[in-house]
Design a protein that fits this description.
Blueprint (H helix, E strand, L loop, with lengths): L8 H17 L13 E4 L6 E5 L4 H11 L3 E5 L1 E3 L7 H4 L1 E4 L1 E6 L11 E5 L5 E4 L13 E3 L5 H22 L4 E5 L4 E6 L3 H4 L3 H12 L5 H5 L20 H14 L8 H7 L6 H8 L5 H5 L4 E3 L13 E3 L21 E6 L7 E3 L2 E3 L6 E5 H10 L2 E3 L5
Antiparallel strand pairs: 1-2, 1-3, 3-12, 4-5, 6-11, 7-8, 7-9, 10-11, 10-13, 14-17, 14-18, 15-16
Helix pairs in contact: 1-2, 8-10
The structure holds zinc ion.
Zinc ion binds next to loops.
């Protein structure tokens, strides 16, 4: 019997052929200096990374993607003189792009949202939050089998937009491309000049601290002084101000509408109906990014346009100016959406589960005719296997 997280051989064969077909015509967004990048892949049915590959041009990369049909495809955020040499020192790093990753399930409002799991050891299907052991058999081998709620993805998107605003306004880095990661969040690739590429990990950490508000001294930002007393003539931060004052100004305007210039903190206290809880405004102004990703100058980045083998959806460009609902992941983004597959369920779902906006509830052994978005997801998770369709 196939276990979740491990597709059956028939599933792997089908997925390989689907991915391969997709890559023949897929629109990939590659960096102009791709010959200086290391490429890395994880192939379907394998758990190891194949690293230190390099490709001269899109055609040779596409040939590899079509013939190998990888589950995961990456290039390095770093540029190297010798990208194909395995030894990191000898690769000779020339600089690194500035990359941000926002994961919806790491956001404070979303970490406690229950998710659907199947236990790899005993097959128990259940819903829980923050678990790492099966409540029935105690095994640590759990597979998450639903996608994040649209609410949590919308919060991640809000963070992405805030990130872009702060980078543009406060750091002079307005040119960036945003992508849905294919699974649980968004990536932002800043179009870096030489100065930005040469930032070391320490510089990048400072940048992350500024975005997250780590070590923020709110009294200083507001001009309160050490006694935290509200002097009558202190002014409310306005969105047009630079730095953290401007970010707080935006959070205040979101909560209370825009306030006229010259509004004092004492007046804001009246508007807010009592003592001001600055932590609430700070939280709304914070940008939650995965700091490991930004600080690491040797990071691997998913190739925009490549399929994320956890879900079957490609890394998809999102328009930061578009209406939010257009930037939330949906099954219509699946390259397999137009096809129908007959599959047999290998496990129960823990009640109805949500897969990029589609709802599914099924029992082990059940035969289902499903569209390619949901079918590919179930096959990749090892929850179902393909059945020859004789109809
Ligand atoms: Zn179990």
């Amino acid at each position: 019997m196939s276990r979740p997280g491990q597709s059956s051989q028939a599933a792997t064969r089908l997925l390989r052929s689907l991915f391969s077909d997709y890559y023949r015509g897929a629109r990939l967004e590659l960096p102009p200096d791709m010959e200086k990048r290391e490429f890395a892949f994880q192939y379907l049915g394998s758990h190891t990374y194949h690293r230190h590959l390099s490709f001269r041009d899109e055609k040779s990369l596409r040939g590899h993607l079509v013939s190998k049909a990888p589950a995961h495809a990456y290039y390095s955020s770093a540029l190297f003189l010798f990208p194909e040499i395995p030894n990191m020192e000898e690769k000779k790093r020339l600089g690194s792009d500035l990359i941000f990753d926002i994961d919806a399930d790491d956001l404070p409002q979303c970490t406690a949202v229950p998710r659907a799991y199947v236990c790899l050891s005993c097959g128990h299907a259940f819903r829980a939050s923050g678990v790492n052991r099966c409540p029935r058999c105690g095994s640590g081998e759990l597979e998450n089998v639903d996608t994040l709620s649209q609410d949590c993805m919308a919060r991640a998107l809000e963070n992405l937009r805030r990130l872009h605003r702060v980078l543009s306004k406060d750091l002079g880095l307005p040119r960036a491309r945003a992508y849905f990661s294919g699974s649980r969040g968004y990536h932002l690739h800043v179009e870096c000049d030489d100065r930005c590429r040469s930032m070391d990990s320490e510089d990048r950490r400072e940048l992350v601290d500024y975005l997250k508000g780590t070590g923020l001294e709110i009294e200083r930002v507001l001009g309160l002084g050490s006694r935290r007393r509200l002097s009558k003539d202190l002014l409310v931060p306005q969105p047009s101000e630079p730095g953290w004052r401007g970010r707080l100004g935006e959070a205040i305007a979101l909560a209370h509408g825009s306030l006229p210039l010259g509004t004092t903190l004492a007046q804001l206290e009246e508007i807010a109906g009592g003592r001001l809880d600055w932590e609430v405004y700070v939280e709304r102004a914070r940008v939650h990014v995965d700091e490991k990703v930004t600080i690491d100058v040797h990071r691997l980045v998913r190739i925009p346009g490549s399929i994320n083998g956890k879900t079957g959806l490609p890394v998809t460009r999102v328009d930061l100016e578009a209406a939010p609902e257009e930037a939330l992941p949906q099954c219509s983004w699946s390259p397999f959406r137009e096809r129908v597959f007959l599959v047999k369920m290998l496990h129960d779902t823990p009640g109805p589960i949500s897969i990029f906006g589609e709802t599914l509830r099924a029992r082990r052994g059940q035969l289902l005719r499903l569209d390619g978005c949901v079918a590919a997801y179930l096959l990749l998770k090892g929850l179902a296997e393909p059945v020859a369709d004789k109809s």
